[in-house]
Amino acid sequence: MRRILLLLTVLMGVSLITNGAVSIYTTNTTLPTNEHTSITQSQNSKDTLDKEEVLSESSHEKHSINLAPLFFIILSLFIGTATRYLFRKGPLPYTILLLIFGLILGALARFDILNTFDLNLIADSINWAGNIDPHLILYLFLPTLIFEAAYSLHIHTFKKSLGNAVILAVPGIMVAILITSAAIMLMKSFGIGLNQWTFLLALLFGTIISATDPVAVVAILKEVGASKRLSTITESESMLNDGTAIVIFMAIFGLITGEAANGNAFIEFLRVSLGGVLVGAIIGWGILSWIKRVFNDALIEITVVIGAAYLSFFLAESIFHVSGVIAVVTLGISMAGPGKTKVSPGVTHFLHEFWELAAFIANTLIFIIVGVVIALQVNYKISDVIILFLAYITIHIARLGTIYIFYPLMKKIGYGISFKDSIVLWWGGLRGAVALALALIVAIDSRIPIEPRNQLLSLTAGIVLLTSLINATTVRWLIDKLGLSKVDNIKISLMKQSLLQVKLSGEKEIEKLKSNRYMSGADWKRVSDFLIDNSLTEETPESFDINDALIETRKRLLQKEKESYWRQFNMGMLSSDGVHLLSDQIDVLLDFGGKIPLSERQDIEKIWKAPKTLSKLQNLPLIGKIWKRRFINRLTLSYDCARAFVAAQEENLKSLSSLAIGLSIGESDDTSNNDFLSMLEDEINANRLTGQTFLRNLKEKYPDIRTNIETLLASRSLLNQQEEMIEKLKKQGRLEPDEVTQIQSKVQNLLKRLTDTSTEKYTNLKVAETIKNTPGLDKISSEAAKQLIAKSQIKFFPEGAVLLKEKSSSKSVFLIINGTINYYSNQKLLGVKESCNTFGFYEWLTSSKIRHTVKAETPVSILIISYSTINSLSKKYPEILNPFKFTASTEIALELLKNNENYKNLTSRKLRKIISNAQLEIINDEEKHRFEGSSCILVKGEAIVENEDTLSHAPAILSECNVRCKDDSIIIVIP
């Protein structure tokens, strides 16, 4: 009683304050008009006076009308917050209490009680709400409620529950409509009071009343800890059948009013439904593309999402005439799925909080409005009350029939539903604001006879009221009776043990505080009264076996592993694709309920590995570049996931003992506990070993990918440390707030740049470094090297891939960035080449066929430079030709010197070092030339050594460095 009095006091205070403010505001605005009136009177202009008086009155009336909606919103928000605070421990759900208060407000206005106490503004605002345009309910409240519900869905659970939700929302609602309309026509045939109803009107009523709105039920399911699967299917059905009901409603309403679209009804249903999906998907894609370009700007990101929710509904309903509800659902799911990682980590929590607030405000307003509308607009006769109770029974029969028909199918789809779940689904099918809004649309349409439309509104309002007051208030009792809220013994035990740890920690803190000179005189007995103990958990656990504990601990370890992935993502240590891939895997494991070992990951390496088809597709003409980029990204993702996976396993190992607390409460002994912990430890270690092995292999095969990712991670760690340091300096008072903002802005820009940095960019840097370390190519200028990389292709080849075939034609030269290749002649292994080695240059220089077959010994990354690229670049950078010719010369020189008596004892590394200091000589005449060097190698053309008559043909090692060459010959001189 005290709570109700306090609530009424708050409302009266708001009313008096606002009435006073409105009186002052209205008086001030009408004052100039009164002055003008007195002037016109002095001029004896009666017509002008009358006109000004009318304008003054209409202006005053206009201000009153405009302020009524605003005051109703203010009043409703105060009622909502006061109700939530004062009745938070009450037995009735919050929304049902709001509905009751709406009924009370409507009754006060209907019986003119408020005007009696000179509370005209309250009466006007309530009358505005009671006669609200039903389209306003749909356009203003529905996008918020639908989007918030879709955005808060657990996507994995939603996907598994989608089949059952669609069954209930599409064929299920059609069955319910037919059963309800048949029952209405049966009542008419018995002469109960629906004399003017037609079958179409009965179908329309069935459509309106079949859409569920289980806001209160879902809140209770979450509160009592019922299955997430049950609450998800309940909420998913509600979202989808709102869309279905509105689509069917508009079709039947069009038939009744003569506005029905021509064409097949089924095709129209598909057009409206799939059109809504398309609108939502397109807007979702556009918004996600926008948001991912913004970094940590909450104002932009949240505003864009709000606008998208309303834009989807508006465009779908008003422009394209498709389902706005389905469009918003599609948008919400896209934001809850891929969009979850596109929103900046620093904004994600804020965005969730905002939509919770928006849904709270929308629910507050809409349930009060529903109560007011029912109280003001509904009129009941005795016969109407009888019909109402029959209709109330009918909708439950229709709901029961729907579930009964589809139950055999539903229990086999996705998670399935149990018999107990089906009972909650049946009884928890409340009707709410959508049903009432659709009924109001019918009630205000004069093309339908007044008696049936008034009856339709009365029946709908009555059923909304009855399901809210009866079903919503008893569903908690039903859930308890069915045992769906019962907590497992192992959970109770772990809860008690956790509370015991909290208590022990508090006792230690008390002992510590006793030594504090400012608190040593406290009454420690009274302080101890504030210790939390395990009496908070009323349940007394029964004994449990070690297998129960094993299952529960596995589930907790999986949840902790999932949290680790999202924490790593929020810190910038894991990519958005990586967190989705790893989290989805955890969701799949959680579906088994902890009954399988943590190490049974269904070939986790196959999930990480880059498909071999990607490495082959990159060789395709034209589109090969796209596939190459995808291949690089996939390798990056593989490394990213494996590293995060190992980090999560190491975290689980550290926390294993704390997560396995409380086991001694059951019937287990110390030996069992040790076996239990050892089993879990082995499972986690097996996971860690799998990840480490995968990483080691990946590092060996693709060291550049490892370098790129580790560079990104190290950069992000550095930026995180700098952010922490800025906050520390701020707390110490060494930085002013404006200085902190300026520095943080700089850090945020660096973070954004780091986020936008692609692996391909780092790969290009690796290629530039390789060019600088390759003899011959190292002479190319930086600008020319950049152009060379930009116009060339970087490709990855798996182990065993054939890069070139002997005696084939080639149009490119090749530089090894990473990995190792073997080259053969007549299937005989001639040698090995690795990073900073080239092949194919000699064939370019001499315009000859490929001399060797080249195979990848390990996965390799190769820079492929086409002949046409060399020709085009040589026109702009003529100086690059000599480095290319030198590279070709060193390539053949290395092969020749390996088989020379004077050099065969040297390693390939030493030979390369010798050749790197060689001198390139290009001879364009037939004169004698003498070169200073230990050896001369004829790379191109023909030459005669002095005192010899033999003509040497390239490639050849010359016996002396005193030669006469034919035109267009090339010699490399070894120092």
TrEMBL record:
Pfam families per record: cNMP_binding (PF00027), Na_H_Exchanger (PF00999)
Please list the residue ranges annotated as the Cyclic nucleotide-binding domain: 776-873
Give the superkingdom in one word.
Bacteria
UniProtKB keywords: Cell membrane, Ion transport, Membrane, Sodium, Sodium transport, Transmembrane, Transmembrane helix, Transport
Which InterPro entries does its entry note?
A: Cation/H_exchanger_CPA1 (IPR018422), Cation/H_exchanger_TM (IPR006153), cNMP-bd_dom (IPR000595), cNMP-bd_dom_sf (IPR018490), RmlC-like_jellyroll (IPR014710)
Q: Where are the transmembrane segments?
A: 67-87, 94-111, 136-153, 165-187, 199-220, 240-257, 269-291, 303-334, 354-378, 385-407, 423-444, 456-479
Gene Ontology process terms (BP):
regulation of intracellular pH; sodium ion import across plasma membrane
Q: What is its main location?
A: membrane
User: What cellular component terms from Gene Ontology apply here?
Assistant: plasma membrane
**Cellular location of this protein?**
Cell membrane
What GO terms are given for molecular function? potassium:proton antiporter activity; sodium:proton antiporter activity
CDD domains with a match to the protein in the record: CAP_ED (cd00038)
Bilayer topology reads: Multi-pass membrane protein
Name of the protein: Cyclic nucleotide-binding domain-containing protein
Q: Tell me what organism the protein belongs to.
A: Tenuifilum thalassicum
